[in-house]
Design goal:
This protein is mostly beta strands and 165 residues long. The protein has one helix at residues 8-30, and strands spanning 47-55, 62-71, 77-83, 87-96, 99-103, 106-108, 112-116, 122-128, 137-144, 150-157. Strands 1, 2, 3, 4, 5, 6, 7, 8, 9 and 10 form a ten-stranded mixed beta sheet that branches. The longest helix is centred in the first third of the chain and has 23 residues, at 8-30. It is globular and about 45 Å long. Residues 11-41 have low confidence and may be disordered.
């Protein structure tokens, strides 16, 4: 037994180092620092898009787009831009009362949604490549501050179309 006695402190020291490293890794994994702002209940955004459509424009150079971005994740995100081959420019707008204002981004709250609807926040498509017809499908790419872009195909609906809740 005497020859093993000198090795015990070394084994204990190695075990303590392994235990400390394991605890450090566990604490780092549980810290909530996921690059999405961290903090209590944080997490990554989990985005999906529903209810998207473009109203058939009454004019040939401008149209409006509507959609809902759902976020099932614990982290917030922002819609920063939208691109489409239909328009050379797509801008984000908020509406307060009767005042429409262009903004650089729209919030997609954690565990919530961003709703773009007629009379509210919406997309403005300008310098159209052509006047889209009802039934046509238009490609959109939605760009976000932290999430990967989302590509969707959007139907063109009549000017008077109002989605069902």
């Amino acid at each position: 037994m005497t020859p093993a006695a000198p090795g015990i402190p070394g084994v204990r020291k190695a075990a303590a180092v392994v235990l400390a490293l394991g605890l450090s890794a566990t604490l780092a994994a549980c810290s909530g620092d996921d690059g999405g702002g961290g903090g209590g209940g944080g997490g990554d955004p989990k985005l999906s898009v529903t209810g998207a459509y473009v109203s058939q424009p009454p004019m040939t150079d401008m149209a409006a787009g509507y959609l809902t971005v759902r976020n099932a994740g614990g982290g917030a995100d922002e819609l920063t831009s939208v691109t489409t081959p239909l328009a050379s420019e797509v801008t984000l707008h908020t509406t307060k009362g009767t005042r429409m204002t262009q903004v650089s981004s729209l919030d997609v709250p954690a565990d919530n949604r961003l709703e773009l609807s007629s009379g509210g926040d919406h997309l403005m498509l300008t310098n159209l490549s052509h006047r889209p017809k009802v039934g046509e499908k238009v490609s959109f790419t939605l760009h976000f501050a932290t999430s990967a872009p989302i590509e969707i195909r959007v139907p063109v609906e009549p000017t008077t179309y109002r989605p069902k809740d």
